[in-house]
From TrEMBL:
The chain crosses the membrane at residues 597-620. It comes from the Bacteria. Pfam families: ABC_tran, Peptidase_S15, PepX_C. Residues 233-259 are annotated as: Disordered. GO terms for molecular function: ATP binding; ATP hydrolysis activity; dipeptidyl-peptidase activity. The keyword Metal-binding does not apply. This is ABC transporter ATP-binding protein. Residues 233-242 have a biased composition (Gly residues). PROSITE patterns: ABC_TRANSPORTER_1, ABC_TRANSPORTER_2.
Length: 942
């Protein structure tokens, strides 16, 4: 429940001069923005820090020491009081988390009171999760304290003129405090919850939290940060800056120890700790736990809120999604209280979002407080605003968000809806034992990073079903909660499922918007899918533009690492009920924005430069795309052509300096080299896993780049195989092929299995396989679809001699029929027997390439059989230019290095050593050592 982005967002919700100008330009609200922006960047303020003792609890008589800091603007005096802001921090934070926010609020003329909530930092007491009798009553006593300050304006004796701002934990406190204490004049809750039970026990088919699926990832982080709060000292010292200690406070170094606590609970109250442990242990919530969480939820008191409310919620938030703000908005508006809703692109997972987005929301925040707390400016509009990522800022080199507005709040169901057909057969899906391995849909706090790389979602083969639409004929702007109807069956009678909606681009890359997933718990299921009743699933609210040509993919999975799932293994069957996804949309208008070139005096010149750069980049990009789509005529029929490949890293390390070779149909090419020679880097470039610094790679004439469609013509095994042990080899292969999304008829299972030589063992469960069988199964997986180019990294690793011999036959069989194989291996004897051609790399460069027999023929080595090998070695070591190589058979292997063999024999005879036989030593190993040196090592590989 702690949001690292919330504190930073609040900080930027108050403008410095430059930020305010950007906000004014962005939302075209110049009049208020300019006046607001001319304030000094470094506010002139004073602070007072100390421990304030308040009394709360059910009877209002339990003391707790709250660590506070009051920020006062320079103009705040007893004869010139100013309005106040009560600024709450997120879960796991302290008053220091919002220091910069408080300074900026004070710079705008507000008296700002921050404090560490009970159980955090130097404040005493236990954590009750925004309990009305504890944290909320603590805040009420702080309102009393503010009302007693002569520098704070009041509406009546004991009634300060105050707005409450907070994110996440602090946002819920703002809602609960406004419901309980009518002295609050306005609130701005951000990225917070409506129903804490539903947030941690969501269920997307309409059931309550008692049937919800436990959000164990976020709950564990939340409980861990609260538990750690008690591990540090809550004593220490803290002086005041620019003023005396606040009235009613005890000295900062006074006793504040929270007392002995249960190590398993940290500073959580006993009932909170017990509820968490019960849920975390069983994965289910009892009614007592649900009641406890709802006790700390605004949902039950929204009709008591009279303070005008600006609700800010983030789309990149798997903890408190957009639907939480929607529920808060509807509950508050029902009582007639002014409400405005603003969605932005950040959140608990996404931080503050792009600067253009935070500028927009920043203005709305201060405008809200200025009107309803300070009493200045016209009443803010009640427009609904939202945003989505639009691209990059040419000057800031960061993401840009486009804002949109509509006059009527549409909620999460939208004002328009579009139905998109999706198809797919009924499919069996396995629930893994103990929930492991589990699919990955989101990583707490990492949504912003994930969005830059197309999402982090990973679905496990065999554990999910796919249903897909045809390419969209036109773009669709989704704003709200999509819905889909499914059917499910299970011999166990129940199932926990996770429903997801992917955006799949034309190249097949799938993105799960902000890692959002809809968990459902189904009970009373029939054993046969034909008997299953339809279930409508409300997917998480998103803001996303799905471009024309993209497809929608509905995935129903049995596992998710963010949630608790049943530990017993089972196989369910799922199918679509209606064969369509309903997408909500909102009729809206874009909020006009302006470029940020106002920052510089030479705005016009910079704009010209930017436009010129954009034109140049567009031209270069168009040429780049044309190069990608064009086919190089010289390599149109060549499976692989590598031209002058170079890979240099940022630290100056050169892994590959000059690699140039080709692989033709029917060839088995061995890529050889000592450790660190650059083999792995070369293979990573060939698979599109990394971009080369220079040079080109062509696959059948297509220039290779990451994600290129031509990669589908390559089969690869570049890492150890990973299979589901409870499935058979054949089922693993089928699950893998299903995950590729390619047509079933193109798999050609029988041919791949015949080449791999698995026989009847393909029907056995993989957990019974030997290492060699797993390796052959991995080769069969790489051969699915019979790709025209097969790239294998150490395919014989860990195999015994019979298995190595079988793998040799597998590769030779595969290369027939015009296909090609590139294999990297350190077993030179196997390469010599298996490969038709070889490429030898040393220190990032090719030192030899061509048919294996030619490379072997270049070896100057001879095998010398003598009567006294020890004496012969001594003689030959003294012979200039002659080198004795390591022997493997008890004989001498001699590299003559151009010295005539007759001279070598004569020297041995003169030394009295009998020479029985001298024969050419034509082995690949000898040629390899001659080429790279006996002790040669590359400069390292990456």
């Amino acid at each position: 429940m702690r949001s690292p982005s919330a504190a930073g967002w609040v900080r930027r919700a108050l403008p410095t001069r430059r930020r305010a100008l950007a906000a004014a330009a962005a939302v075209v609200l110049v009049a208020a923005g300019v006046a607001w922006a001319v304030r000094p960047t470094e506010p002139d303020l004073r602070t007072e820090a100390g421990l304030v003792t308040v009394r709360s609890g059910p009877a209002g008589d339990e003391p707790v020491d709250l660590d506070t800091t009051l920020y006062l603007p320079a103009e705040a005096r007893a004869d010139a009081p100013v309005p106040a802001v009560l600024l709450a921090h997120g879960f796991g934070g302290t008053k220091e988390s919002v220091r910069a926010d408080a300074e900026e609020f004070a710079g705008q003329g507000y008296a700002v009171l921050t404090w560490s909530a009970r159980g955090f930092g130097r404040s005493s007491g236990q954590i009750h999760l925004d309990h009305p009798d504890y944290e909320v009553r603590d805040a009420q006593r702080l309102l009393d304290w503010l009302a007693a300050r002569p520098e704070v304006a009041t509406d009546a004796p004991g009634d300060p003129r105050v707005g409450v701002v907070g994110g996440s934990y602090g946002g819920a406190l703002a809602l609960l405090l406004a419901a309980k204490d009518q002295r609050v004049d306005a609130i701005v809750p951000m990225i917070t919850w409506n129903d804490l039970a539903r947030s941690f026990l969501p269920e997307s088919s309409g059931k309550g939290p008692g049937q919800g699926v436990f959000k164990q990832g976020w709950a564990g982080l939340f409980f861990g940060s609260g538990g750690a709060a008690g591990s540090g000292s809550v004593g220490g010292s803290s002086g005041s800056v620019g003023g005396s200690a606040p009235a009613g406070s005890r000295p900062a170094d006074g006793p504040t120890a929270a007392g002995a606590v249960d190590p398993s609970c940290g500073r959580f109250a006993a009932d909170v700790c017990a509820a968490y442990l019960r849920i975390a242990t069983t994965g289910r919530a009892d009614q007592g736990a649900v009641d406890l969480l709802r006790r700390s939820s605004p949902a039950g008191v929204l009709d008591q809120i009279e303070a005008p409310t600006l609700l800010v919620q983030g789309a990149a938030d798997t903890l408190f999604p957009l639907t939480e703000a929607d529920a808060n908005a509807r509950g508050i508006a029902a009582a007639g209280t002014p409400v405005r809703v603003a969605w932005f692109t950040g959140g608990h997972d996404g931080g503050d979002g792009p600067k253009t987005d935070s500028d927009r929301v920043r203005f709305l925040t201060v405008q809200w407080l200025d009107h309803y707390v300070r009493g200045e400016g016209p009443a803010p509009d009640d427009d609904f605003t939202f945003s989505r990522i639009a691209g990059f800022d040419a000057l800031d080199r960061g993401l840009v968000a486009t804002g949109f507005r509509t006059t009527d709040y549409p909620g999460v169901t939208g004002t328009d809806q579009r139905t998109v057909p999706v198809t797919g057969p009924a499919q069996p899906i396995a629930n893994p034992p103990a929930g492991n391995p589990a699919a990955i849909t989101s990583v707490p706090f990492a949504g912003e990073l994930a969005s830059l790389f197309g999402g982090v979602a990973v679905d496990i083969p065999g554990q999910h079903a796919r249903f897909e639409s045809a390419p969209l004929s036109e773009a669709v702007d989704v704003v709200g909660t999509p819905t889909v109807s499914i059917r499910a069956a299970s011999p166990t009678g129940e199932a926990v499922l996770f429903v997801k909606l992917y955006d799949v681009d034309g190249g097949g890359a799938a993105t799960l918007p902000n890692g959002q997933v809809a968990p459902i718990r189904l009970v009373g299921l029939p054993a046969a899918i034909e008997d299953a009743a339809p279930v409508t699933v409300t997917l998480p609210a998103i803001v996303r533009r799905i471009e024309a040509g993209h497809r929608l993919r509905v995935v129903v999975a049995t596992s998710d690492q963010a949630y608790a799932t049943p530990v017993e293994p089972a196989v369910h069957t799922v199918a679509l009920a209606t064969g369509a996804v309903t997408l909500p949309a909102v009729t809206s208008a874009p909020i006009p924005t302006a470029a940020v070139v106002w920052r510089w005096v030479l705005a016009g010149l910079l704009a010209t430069i930017v436009v010129g750069l954009v034109v140049v980049l567009a031209v270069l990009r168009r040429r780049h795309r044309r190069r990608e789509s064009d086919i190089h005529p010289a390599y149109a029929n060549v499976p692989l052509a590598v031209r002058e490949l170079r890979k240099e890293y940022a630290d100056g390390f050169v892994a590959v300096s000059n690699v140039d070779f080709e692989v033709h149909p029917g060839q088995v090419v061995g890529l050889l080299g000592p450790n660190g020679a650059g083999k792995t880097t070369t293979l990573r470039v060939l698979m599109g896993l990394t971009q080369p610094t220079a040079g080109e790679v062509y696959v059948f004439g297509h220039r290779l780049v990451p994600g290129a469609p031509v990669l589908s013509r390559i089969g690869a095994l570049v890492e150890g195989p990973g299979f589901l042990p409870h499935l058979s080899g054949l089922d693993n292969l089928r699950a893998y092929w299903r995950a590729t999304g390619r047509p079933w008829a193109h798999a050609r299972f029988d041919e791949a299995l015949e080449i791999a030589g698995l026989g009847a063992s393909v029907h056995r469960k993989v957990r019974t396989y030997s290492h060699g069988m797993r390796q052959r199964l991995a080769i069969a997986q790489a051969m699915l679809g019979l790709p025209e180019l097969l790239v294998l990294d150490e395919p014989t690793d860990g195999l015994d001699p019979p298995q190595i011999a079988e793998m040799r036959r597998v590769l030779l069989r595969y290369a027939t029929g015009g296909r090609a194989v590139l294999v990297s291996s350190h077993l030179l004897a196997e390469v010599e027997q298996t490969c038709t051609h070889a490429v030898v790399v040393n220190k990032g460069q090719i030192v030899a390439s061509g048919p294996v027999e030619e490379i072997v023929g270049e070896s100057p080595s001879v095998l010398v059989e003598v009567t006294d090998p020890v004496a012969a070695r001594d003689v030959l070591d003294r012979l200039a230019g002659v080198r004795v190589l390591p022997d493997g058979d008890g004989h001498l292997v001699v590299d003559t290095n151009g010295t005539a063999r007759s001279e070598v024999v004569a020297e041995l005879v003169r030394a009295g050593i009998g020479v029985d036989r001298v024969v050419p030593r034509r082995r690949l190993e000898d040629a390899f050592l001659a080429l790279v040196g006996e002790n040669s090592r590359g400069s390292g590989d990456r």
